[in-house]
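Q: Make up one entry.
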Amino acid sequence: MRRPLVLLVTALLVASAAACSGGDGGGDAAPGTGASTSAPPTTEATTTTAPPPPELPRGGRTLFPDHRVVAYYGNAESSALGVLGEVPPEEAAARVEEAAAPFDRPDRPVLPAMELIVTVAQASPGADGDYSSTTPMDLVRRWHFAARDAGMLLILDFQPGRSDFLPQVQQFEELIREPDVGVALDSEWHMGPDEVPGEVIGSVDAAQVNEVSAWLADIVAEEDLPEKVFLLHQFTESMITNRDQVVDRPGLATVFHIDGFGGQEIKVRKYAALQVDPPFHNALKLFYDEDIDIFTPDQVLGIDPDIDLVTYQ
């Protein structure tokens, strides 16, 4: 009769030991077994904040009608081509700021710019036979640094001679990928295969304009850039052939720059003949030396339709 009692006591001891250890195998493991009783470590999700998209020099991502651009025009290597070449870039930036200030309005702040001719049409063919000379990149970068330090746009102006616009523009791709650099096509200086700059007024067809704008729009999209100035110089109807076929591209502010010097009446008639409607924009060039009775800023702002960009030469 003792054996059942022994079995009963043994069973009670085993049950008691199991209860003390938690009853589910969750107690401390014996040393050296490799088991762990601690809860698995928790990891907190880390989030990375994407940098904001680049903006224009004085804020925002849209040029027009948020701003009015006022620019000086010229070449870094010659004072004969415009006011920019008369002084070093840092001093030129101060002059641009002074010229732009009278155009500033509370409802439409001014955005100063420097339109720098980076390929200059030549009367002789040059080594490559294209009748165009390219400004060294290190010199153009100096102007870009000066413009950026002053909170201004830099607009690269192209006079291709017998070359086409797109290959010339693509030489400056590194700079054009910056958020504060635009492009201007100077069609007066785009020559045919037998033409010489200065002897005839050049022209460009809409198809070539559209090639450049498509390439530029792709860059704006790839880099998530703010709106980029795309400037088309013109002072005769024949300078941009098939103009009605010029395409408005997303990411570009396409501006028809109505050049030509003279008295106010002549300039107003020229503007009326060549001005464009939305989605395109209008610009006017003022000549310090050649214009007769040059427009004041208030007079420019009184011209209809509204002028989005003004250049001084």
The chain has one domain: 68-312. The domain at 68-312 is CATH 3.20.20 (TIM Barrel). Confidence is low (pLDDT under 50) at residues 1-37. The longest helix spans residues 2-20.
